[in-house]
User: What shape does this take?
Amino acid sequence: MTEATPKASGIDATLRALLADVLGLGEARAAALTEDSGLFGELPEFDSMAVATVLTEMEDRLAILIDDDEIDGEIFETYGNLLAFSLRKVID
Amino acid sequence: MSEHRLRIDPAGAPRATVLIVPPLFEEANRTRRTLVLAMRALAADGFAAMLPDLPGQNESLAPLVDVDLVRWQDALAEIAAGIEGQVMVASVRGGALIDHKAKAAAWWRLAPVGGASLLRTLMRARVSADREAGVASSLEALQGEAKTAPLLLAGNRLSPFMIAQLGASEAQAVEPLRSVGLGADGVAGTPLWLRAEPGEDAAMAEAIAADISAWSMTCGIS
Assistant: This one.
């Protein structure tokens, strides 16, 4: 139980850094992302190539494997959804 | 067919020529501006710097579907052989997959990446674009299709040969080699090759040039 929080905050930080790298958000914009911040469809930089890049980088940086079938539109709807998906994958 | 080569010369006779091998596909566009800034910094430091177009990329007249990694390796070997004086190869990301056939006095690689990872991203971009357009698509189906027919992946029409080679390609051993990543032990900067919108980073360009220059001294390239 006590381990969950630092692990989660590490994943959160990794994910924000990754989005900053791929979308060129800058530290301030990446830090300002909330659970409800829209991603795909809301950020103009977030096109299908960016989605693909984010997925491959998530695999590398979080040491997970993401199966094609796990990806649906909802994951990229909000930052909160993407974070929840990442946490689920890392804990699995 | 001779390809365009961007060459920046120093004021006097060059200490050596740094042959820049760019990242592959879209990553080349995202990094070009910063790499050319690094070439200028190298020229100011007494090196000649050359950035060739790979056949099928940039201004090349060759159709991309006709080329593969082996052709790129051979093209770079031919370019290196035509350079007068000492050659240092500096490759970035997927450039490291095609830089080993060139004869050089030293190699330098920034953030080398396996071909499988590049291919996975390209395939995913296609799946993602297909699904947005309402077309059923999957990595498995595309991989099957790629065995016999060219695939259009994120704007790149790639042959079955290219796709098979990419899927299995790793950077090959070369000597002497300095392989660096981003960060405190390598080059300070951000992974511009991942950016959805191309950016540029003058400080990173200076850091790239300084690291290449220091490595050339270590290797005894005057």
Summary: The CA atoms of residues 2 and 39 of chain A lie 30 Å apart. The helical segments of chain A are 4-23, 26-31, 48-62, 79-91. Chain A touches chain B through 20 residues (CB under 8 Å). The longest helix of chain A spans residues 4-23.
